[in-house]
Amino acid sequence: MARLTVLYSHGNAVDLGQMLPVYRDFGRLLRVNVMGYDYTGYGCCSNNGGPSVTATCSDVAAALNALETIHGVKRKDVVLYGQSVGSGPTVWLASQRPGVAGVVLHSPMLSGVRVFDPNLRYWPAWADIYPNHLLVKKVDVPLLVLHGTADEVIDVSAGRRLAELAPAAVTPLLAEGFDHQNLEACPEYLPRLREFLQQLQQQQQPASR
Fold first, then answer.
1. Which residue of the set 10, 106, 147, 180 is catalytic?
2. 31-59 burial: b if 16+ Cβ within 10 Å, else e
């Protein structure tokens, strides 16, 4: 059994059924366990009400709880992975449930409103959603940002800024010429992820005497 387990929060335009082949390849190529889930209002959870920020945060918390209580996975062996809108519940969970091994943010947003204006300076917190730019400051575990420089949905400046704000961020992968839909095709994507995951495992190994 692989040591690390990736809790994967997918993007907006897909559901769990569409992501299953991705999770399968992800686990095989990176030698990790992968747990995916659907947000309320998506896929197999489409009959449980409509999607909302509160619901997605409850969903990811429930997924982590299932890993710990049902599958016996220790929190220190869990890596949170958030893609696009999935960066919202991922950063929220990392800020509220300390002790995970690390965090990966794939094409992340600074906040909901800042998707439309990444240079926005002042905006009341109550009028925004997924305030990653605020919550990421509370994430004190290693954090890797992966973002394409040609991202047409969420500007690469968002990923770059989150990497600057996260206290324990590692060097981000800013993939030259890749966009919101094809970042995984970047030749550096898998090697950078693999390197990050290996570093997390090495940090958890007891020092030899």
1. 180
2. ebbbbbbbbbbbbebeeeeebeeebbbeb
User: Which residues are 39's β-sheet partners?
Assistant: none
Pick the CATH number of 5-204 from 3.40.50.150, 3.40.50.1820, 3.40.1160.10, 3.40.50.1970: 3.40.50.1820
Strands 173-175 and 33-36: unpaired
Task: State how far the Cα of 166 lies from the Cα of 143, in Å rounded to an integer.
Answer: 7
Please check whether residue 201 is in contact with residue 172, taking contact to mean a CB–CB distance below 8 angstroms: no
Q: Please report, for residues 25, 147, 184, 194, the alpha-carbon distance to residue 107 in angstroms, rounded to integers and kept in the order given.
A: 19, 5, 11, 18
What does the pLDDT read at residue 13? 76
Count other C-beta atoms under 10 Å from residue 70's C-beta. 8
Any catalytic annotation for residue 84? yes
Per-residue tokens: 147:
């973002």
Tell me if residue 72 falls in helix, strand or coil: coil
180 is catalytic: yes
Q: Which of 9, 38, 59, 84 is catalytic?
A: 84
Which candidate in 38, 59, 77, 151 is catalytic?
151
**pTM beyond cutoff 0.85:** yes
In the residue annotation, 10 being an active-site residue is answered as no
Confidence grade of residue 201 (pLDDT, cut at 50, 70, 90): very high
